[in-house]
Amino acid sequence: MRSVRPARALLAIALAAVLAACSEPAPPPATVDAPPPPMTTADAAPAADSADVHRFKIGTLDAAVLRDGDIRFPNDGKTLGIGAPKAEVDALLTKAGEPTDTVHLSVQALLVRSGDRVLLFDTGAGDADFADAGRLPVSLRAAGVEPAQITDIFISHAHPDHVGGLVDDAGQAVFANATVHLSAPEWQALQADASNAALAAAIAPRVDAFAPGAEVVPGVTAVAVEGHTTGHSAYEIVDGDARLLYIGDGAHHFAVSVQRPQWTIAFDGDAPAAEASREALLARAADSDVTVASPHFPYPGLGRIVRREGSFVWAPLQ
Question: What region holds the Metallo-beta-lactamase domain (predicted)?
C-alpha cells in the first residue's frame, strides 16, 4: 500500500482484518418496512449510464455517484459493533439481508457540476491493499469528466479509502488543476503523519485548509463531525431549496451504524466522541429530511435517515 495509510493503531487492526475477507458479492440491501419519503423532482435520478456511474440531480445541479470499489472484512467483533453481543450484530445484518460472516462496505465518490466548477467529494482508495478498489478514474471518465477538469476536491478526512485516489503510482497529483479542500485540523494531522509525507508534499501547493464548519465554496458548507478523525467533515450541498448531505464516515454501515449509532467501530479515532457525533448527525439528517449521500452504504448510497422505534433506519431512494 502507498504512503497514504494512516498510522492509527485501531485502523491498522481493522485494515489487517480485511485481508481475510471473502470474495462473494454482498446481496442487495433490504429496504425498510415503510417506503422512503417520495422523491421530488430535485431528487429524481435518471437511469445510470454505466454500472459505475449513477446520475441524479441536486436541484438544477448535475451530480453522479462514482463507484470506486469495495471493502470486506470478517464480522468477528473486532471492527464493527465492538463490545456488542455478536448475536445482536448478526440479527441486524440478517434483517437487512446481509451475510453474518462478512461485512461489506462500498467505496464511492460524489461528482457535482456547479456552474463552471466541477466538484469531487473524496477520491476513493486508489490501489490500497485492504480494498478491491481503484475504479474511480474509469468511473470518472464514464461520467464524461477527465481528471484535469476537476476544479475542487472536498476531502472528508485523510483515511486511505478517501484520499488514496489523490496521487498516482508515481506519487504525483492525479487532479493537477484542482484545489484540495479539507479542514485545517485534518490538514495539520495529515502533515504530522510521517507515513503521509509523500501525499502531503504532492498536494500541498493546492490545499485550502478551511475552518471547521465554514462555507467552503458557494453552495458547499462543511459540517464538523467529531471523533472519527481530528478534523472529519461532512458537506452540505445546496441549490435553491434542494439539499444533499454528504456524510463521509459519519456512519459506515447502512444497518448497524444507523440503527445502533452508539456501537463502537474500530475505524474511529475517538470512539466516545464519534458515537455522540454519529447520533447527532443522523438526528440532523432525519429531522431535516435531507437527502443523504454515503460513500460506504450500498451503491449508489443515496437515501434518507428515518426515525423509527427510538433509533434510525436507512431508507434508500428507489
Answer: 106-296
